Amino acid sequence: MTLYGGIEAGGTKFICAVGTGPNDLRAETRFATTTPEETIPRAIAFFQPYATQLAAIGIGSFGPIDPRPASPAFGYITTTPKPGWAHTDFVGPLQKIYNLPIGFDTDVNAAALGEQNWGAAQGLDTFIYLTIGTGIGGGVMVEGNLLHGVMHPEMGHIFVPHNREQDSFEGSCPYHGDCLEGLASGPALESRWGVRAESLPNPHPAWELESSYLADAIVNYTLPLAPQRVILGGGVMQQAHLFPLIREKVQKRLNGYLAATEIIEQMEGFIVPPALGQRAGILGALALAQQAFHG
Ligand code: ADP
Ligand code: ZN
Question: Does residue 113 sit within a domain?
Answer without folding.
Answer: no
